[in-house]
Amino acid sequence: MLEISFKKTLGHFILEPSFQAKKGVLGILGPSGCGKSMTLKAISGLYSPDLGTITLNGHVLFSSKNKINIPPRLRNIGYLFQNYALFPHLTVHQNIAYGIKDLKADLRNKKAADIICRMQLEGLENHYPHQLSGGQQQRAALARTLIKDPDLLLLDEPFSALDSHVKYLLEKELISIIQKHYNGIVLLVTHNIEEAYRICDHIMVMDEGQIFQIGTKDEIIYTPANLTAARITGCKNFLDATVLETHEDYYILKSHDLLFKAAKTDQPINKQMTAGIRAHHIKISPMHRCLENTFECDIIEKIEGVFSATILVNCCGCPLQVEVSKTSCPHLSEIKYNKIKLHIPPDKIFLINNA
Amino acid sequence: MKAINLFPLYLSFYVAVTASIISLFLGLPIAYLLSKGRSKTTDFIDTLTNLPIVLPPTVLGYYLLVLFGRQSPIGLFLENTFDIMIVFTPTGAVIAATVVSMPYLIKSSKTAFMEINEDYLNAARLLGRSEFSIFCTIVMPISWRGIASGVTMSFVRALGDFGTTLMVSGSIPGKTMTMPIAIYDALQAGNKEMSTLLVLIMTSIAAFVLFTINRLEKRMEKR
Lengths: 355, 223
What we know:
By secondary structure, chain A is of the alpha+beta class. Chain A contains 8 helices and 22 strands. In chain A, the strands form 4 sheets. In chain A, strands 1, 2, 3, 5, 6 and 7 form a 6-stranded antiparallel β-sheet that branches. A 6-stranded mixed β-sheet of chain A has the order 8-9-10-4-11-12, sandwiched between helices. In chain A, strands 15-14-13-16-22 form a 5-stranded antiparallel β-sheet, with no helix packed on it. Chain A starts with a strand and ends with a strand. The longest helix of chain B has 31 residues.
């Protein structure tokens, strides 16, 4: 188990992460420059916090109180860098064996050969990193790290520099390698909610050095704890709403001229709340049908992507952004009229206490 | 025709090779520290190491005489304890050549060190290697072209030094007369063949070295 609680002043904000991580993949999600990479660097010992403690499986790695600061080379932490940081002047075999030079030569070669086989790098032992494809580089970097049986594996935005096709393949491969060959704690830093959702078991939302929420990935998506967490996880629509009525399992809320229903949860409620609605959760409904929470809206703008479209609408005075898949609404691009009927599922609306 | 005395050529090579070796051992650690440091102290040391490039050779010679002269504490100490004389000796020429040439090595290696992606060093640290081991296995091999280019630069600079060497070690024929000084000396004495030959030797060495550096830098860009 990894336990972290430290403080570090960084330029314009204070990095103050405090969390625990157990076996499995924990995603650290946040915008660029929010301190997530710095958190990994502090855990691995590449930067020292000002105050606090870092404990891994009962071993104290850093403690400002007891003046303990184990150097990175003794922490036995695996780190996968953004561009893999394979040593350009060493071959694949030399790269992989770099961290185990203290072992006897025959054992070293046996271990290297074993992991080269497991990572499907046979035949590439004498190649240099620049001769490898992206996937081979990733496997070589993972092999170099996993050969040391690290107690903790840190992944620092491993896919952010790749184009989307390669990214998807490498992501799939990384997940399967970790599932097959690594049975420990993994922290993954990313600014992409989709990536975090696909890879991680738990997600932690960070901004400006602070942790805003930590929970399972579905908790993060369906019940964001606050506005920042909702925004960072990609929610586009926020309505300032007044709670008009409270029923047994739903509330009636009002925002501008929009009267809508939201499912009740056990969170405490104020008179003034912020209602968050994810752009993907809003559905287009046929003009003639009349469901609850269905509203006629004016289309302001339509932005077409390859397979999905973003529609900006005015919904009874409230601006909303809607994301629809083109395949589910093939007729969408032919819409000539500028009105549309939208259904907002009450159970997909989350309420945030903005006081 | 009088036989041409090639002693200045041998002495110049001895001085330049020794100065380059000293520069390498002193200059590389300094360059590495400077490439890592961002404090005012390192900025100050950086300025100090660049000073010999911009100062007139005579000014450097003056400082070296003040520092190592027979009246100075260091000069006295070296003479009394080790029986080493600096002024008017080949040792003095080596020291002069080291001071004028080391800045080129430091500058070139520092730039090469700074270009190394910090992630390589961090990756090596997390793989359990010590800083010294990382310097030998990662830093040096990755930046060897920059270091080699610096060594060659400082070698030619040491080979060609005139003013500082003249002030510190003088121009005793057969003892401290290096090639640039011999060229001046031959020209003054009206010995045209000698000066022409020495000039041609110096020019070909310089041209060859510059060509080598050029090739190295081209290959560095390719990577």
